[in-house]
Write a sequence for this structure.
């Protein structure tokens, strides 16, 4: 490890991706990838590790809550943050139960 914090962003919405990436660059975080689907994120995570995974729950090829569980259990991602417009107590609880350490709601 180079000592840099590495981040993978999984977000299908271009505007939201650009917003997240601009914040990451301002705080000197190393972005290892930007994916718009579970399939592309899973493929990338099979090749490299990340310190933090930011993921949308509404993904075009599956349920982000299931992806959080798989990333946590099968891909050994320890720091997962959901970034989504879903804000029900059930979604938040499920994300945390599945391995998320944070939950950010979009406006």
């Amino acid at each position: 490890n180079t000592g840099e914090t590495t981040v993978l962003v999984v977000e299908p919405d271009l505007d939201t991706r650009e917003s997240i990436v601009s914040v990451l660059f301002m705080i000197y975080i190393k972005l290892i990838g930007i994916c718009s689907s579970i399939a592309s994120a899973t493929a990338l995570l099979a090749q490299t590790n990340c310190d933090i995974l930011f993921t949308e729950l509404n993904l075009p090829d599956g349920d982000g809550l299931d992806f959080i569980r798989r990333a946590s259990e099968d891909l050994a991602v320890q720091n997962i943050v959901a970034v989504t417009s879903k804000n029900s107590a059930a979604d938040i609880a499920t994300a945390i139960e599945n391995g998320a350490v944070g939950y950010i709601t979009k406006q």
